[in-house]
Amino acid sequence: MILSVDIKKRYKGFSLDVKFTTNGEYLGLLGASGSGKSMTLKCIAGIETPDEGKIMLNDKVLFDSDKKINLKPQERNIGYMFQSYALFPNMTVEENIGAGLKGTKMERQQKINEMLKIFHMDGLEKKYPGQLSGGQQQRTALARCIAYEPDVLLLDEPFSALDSHLKEQLLTDVLELLKFYKGKVIMVTHSRDEAYRFCENLVIIDKGMSVLWGDTKDIFKHPRLLSAARLMGCKNISKCEMLSPTSISLLDFGITIETENEAAKKYGYAGISSNGFQITDNKAEKNTIECKVIEIIEEEFDYTIIAENKVCSNSKLYFKVIKEKWDNREENNNLYLKVKEDCLFMLE
Predict the structure, then answer these.
(1) CA-wise closest residue to 206 among 53, 348, 64, 56
(2) SS3 83
(3) For 271-311, how does the pLDDT look when each residue is reduced to its tens digit (9 = 90+)?
(4) Whole-angstrom distance, CA of residue 95 vs CA of residue 257
(5) Rounded Cα distance, 237 and 316, in Å
(6) How far apart are the C-alpha atoms of 137 and 107, rounded to whole Å?
(7) Which residues make Cβ contacts (< 8 Å) with residue 157, sequence separation at least 6?
(8) Three-class SS state of 315
(9) Which of 24, 37, 152, 215 is 20 to 30 Å from the Cα of 241, by its Cα?
(10) What is the pLDDT of residue 332?
(11) From CA 15, how far away is CA 210, in angstroms rounded?
(12) CA distance 101 to 109
C-alpha cells in the first residue's frame, strides 16, 4: 500500500512544502517544534486542507487541488492518534474504544473485547480516562484507532505526554502492540531516539520543508545536510575547505583530514559523530589532533568529553568514551584524538 504526499500550504509567516512517498514501512517525520510535522499529519487526515498539491493512497485520491478533490476525514479510512490522546472524558475505556464503530451491537462488543485483550486492558473496561495512568490512556487511544482497521495510522508525538521514565518501556510496548496492525504507520516526533528505534524510513522537516528522505540509519550515519546534522544532534560541525580531492581542511577545528575517498567540492561543512574519535598515543598519526580537556560530563555508561585543539581553539570537540577506558588512563588532561575517517561526513 503506497501513500504519496506532495502538498503546500501557506500561513501568515510560515509555509508548508512537504513531499514524500511511503510503502508499508514505519515512517517518521522528524523536525524541531513548529517545523510543520503535525500540520502535515492533519493534511493527510483531512483535518486541514492544503492550498495545493496531491495526496494519494494507492489508487485512491484523498486530495487533489487541480481536480478539486478533498475527501472528508471519515472517507479516508485513516486513524489519527492525537498528542493529547483526545479520549472522551465522560466515556469508559470500552466506550472510548467503541466510539463510532459500525456493525451490530454484538459485532461492536466483539471488536471492543478483542482490543481490550490485545492491548492488555482486561479489567479496565469500566474505568474513565481520569482514572488511568498515562500509559493506559495511550493504549486506549491506540486501541480506538486500530479498532477501525484504518489503512494508515498517524501517531502525533505519541510519547510526549508521558513522564520520561515511562517512555522507554512504553516505546517497546507500542512497537509490540503495532504488530497486530497491518497498515502503514507514520509517526511525528522531535526525538532522535524515538525516530531511530521506531522508524525504518525518515523524512526530515525543517522550517516547513521536507529537506531529506531515506533510510533512518543511513540518515543518522550520513545526514548530508547541515540542518539535518544539527537535528541529529551532531555537535562537531565545522566549515570546511577542499584542498585537494582527498584533503579537507576543517577550519573551525584547525585540522586537515586526509581521506582515501574523494570528497565533492560542493560541500561547505563537515561533521564528525561523537563516536568518531579514537584516543591515540601517537601524535604523528595522520588526522590526529592534540587536545586539551575542557569538561567531562558523566553519563550512565560513558563520559562525554569536551575538548579543544591546543593549537586552534575556535570550536569545542565533543566525543564519547567508555568509562572504564577513560578511568584507566594515567593522563587525561591532555590527549591526542584521531578522527575516524568513516565517521566524517560532508554536509551541504
Answers:
(1) 348
(2) coil
(3) 999 999 999 988 888 899 999 999 999 988 899 999 999 88
(4) 63
(5) 10
(6) 24
(7) 38, 83, 188, 189, 190
(8) coil
(9) 215
(10) 66
(11) 11
(12) 10
Q: How far is CA 104 from CA 95, 107, 275, in A?
A: 15, 5, 58
Q: Alpha carbon 293 to chain centroid distance? A: 32
Q: What pTM did the predictor assign? A: 0.84
The values of phi and psi at residue 195, to 5°, are -60, -45
What pairing do the DSSP bridges indicate for beta strands 152-156 and 78-81? parallel
Average pLDDT (252-258) is: 90
Report CA dihedral (233, 24, 44, 135) to the nearest 10 degrees: -60
Q: Mention every residue, 6+ apart, whose C-beta is less than 8 A from residue 107.
A: none
The dihedrals phi and psi of 94, each to the nearest 5 degrees, come to -70, -30
Cell numbers placing 23: 510503502
Please name the residue ranges forming H helices in 222-318: 226-231
Q: Which of 194, 192, 169 is nearest to 274 (CA)?
A: 192
Task: Give the alpha-carbon dihedral of 108, 109, 113, 115, to 10 degrees.
Answer: 20
Say which residue the cell 489519527 belongs to. Answer: 80
Round to whole Å and give the CA distance between 320 and 62.
47
Q: Which of 2, 88, 78 is nearest to 40 (CA)?
A: 78
Which single residue is written with the C-alpha cell 572504564? 324
Q: Which of 205, 201, 196 is nearest to 228 (CA)?
A: 205
Please write the tens of the pLDDT for every residue from 37-58: 999 999 999 999 999 999 999 8
Joined grid coordinates for residue 180: 497486530
Specify the residue for cell string 531511530: 196
The SS3 of residue 110 is helix
Contact present, 202 and 27 (Cβ < 8 Å): yes
The pLDDT tens digits of the residues spanning 131-189 come to 998 888 888 988 898 888 889 999 988 777 665 665 666 677 777 777 777 788 999 98
Of the candidates 145, 100, 95, the one whose C-alpha atom is nearest the C-alpha of residue 118 is: 145
Rounded Cα distance, 282 and 222, in Å:
28
